[in-house]
Amino acid sequence: MSPTSKETAAIVLDCQDHGESDQIVTFFCEDIGRMTGIAKGAKRSQKRFVNKLELFSSLRLRYTESRRSNLVFIAEAELVDSFLRLRQNMSLYMAATVIRELTLSATRDLEGDDGFFALLQWGLRAMDGQRPHSSRDLPCHKRLHLNARSSVIPGGGPRISRPSLVGVAGRRPLCTHSWNEGHSALPVQRSVMNILALFQIKFFEQIGYRPNLDSCLRCHQPFSVAQEYGFDSRGGGIVCGRCQKEQGQASAIALSRGTIKILASAQNQPLHRLHCLQLSGSGLREALSFLTHYGHHLLQREICSLKPFSDLRWQG
Ligand SMILES: [Zn+2]
């Protein structure tokens, strides 16, 4: 009896040629988690797979399981969302690559989804400039900013039009277009980094290493705006200035109180409200710096795709 065909929602994370006509594709799937499959004849197929097995494509997959291995057989794929905009802008594409690399680094095949699929979808949708995926789009009553000087959003300025079509390897790697229509006019470069920071704070929680931003790791005193803090990657949480002095915690990464407040708030926000939080200026820099350091420590490897972001010129 032939194995039963199954269906799932999936996002393409990797695609490699295999032999003359096949492709090996790694997906992240709803409920199933990471899954690798072989798409027989994908390189020749003009119907079943053409333009569908591209990185980041959101698909509806039909597949069958193998009795002998974890590799499934991909029967058919229906394109749900190609996230077109992030393919047309170098900054967006590079940032989506960070999300991909983090996901591939922290997951294994068939370990289950556990909310990870929704986070992945949120990250790609946000980068693509799409509205939050929710039954209702709630207004942002409160936007949190790190400091008054650096966090002013140029929302009062003229609306910036959507980007012209530029290929991934196009001539304009950076641009200053808004990412979220009708929501803000943040330059792409900064808003992409904001999404990356928010994605990572949720990502670490998702893989079971939620940074403790609520109280000092050493004295367990709750976070206070009267204290200075640093982040201890080994301990996975903030350490107050007093404890750092007493225990010589020189290796803690400096983290301002404003940044801690926003990131702690992000931990408690549902995904459809996450876009309301905006780090900017020095807060965004230090948030990404601490998250990169923490990720390096947890995953025991450098996330190569994060590197180019440290070379970009910061705006505001
Ligand atoms: Zn303390």
Structure in words:
The chain has 316 residues and is an alpha+beta fold. The protein has helices at 84-87, 90-106, 116-127, 188-206, 241-247, 257-268, 281-299, 307-311, and strands spanning 5-18, 22-29, 33-39, 58-64, 72-81, 229-232, 237-240, 253-255. The chain folds into 2 domains: 5-81, Nucleic acid-binding proteins (OB fold (Dihydrolipoamide Acetyltransferase, E2P), Beta Barrel), CATH 2.40.50.140; 84-133 and 142-311, Recombination protein O, C-terminal domain (de novo design (two linked rop proteins), Up-down Bundle), CATH 1.20.1440.120. The strands form 2 sheets. It has a 5-stranded mixed beta barrel with strand order 1-2-3-5-4. Strands 7-6-8 form a 3-stranded antiparallel sheet. A hairpin with a 3-residue loop joins strand 1 (5-18) and strand 2 (22-29). Mean pLDDT is 81; it is low at 135-186.
Secondary structure elements and pairings:
Blueprint: E1 5-18, E2 22-29, E3 33-39, E4 58-64, E5 72-81, H1 84-87, H2 90-106, H3 116-127, H4 188-206, E6 229-232, E7 237-240, H5 241-247, E8 253-255, H6 257-268, H7 281-299, H8 307-311
This protein binds zinc ion.
Question: What distinguishing features does this structure have?
Answer:
3-stranded antiparallel sheet; alpha+beta; OB fold (Dihydrolipoamide Acetyltransferase, E2P); 5-stranded mixed β-barrel; binds zinc ion; 316 residues; 8 helices; de novo design (two linked rop proteins); elongated
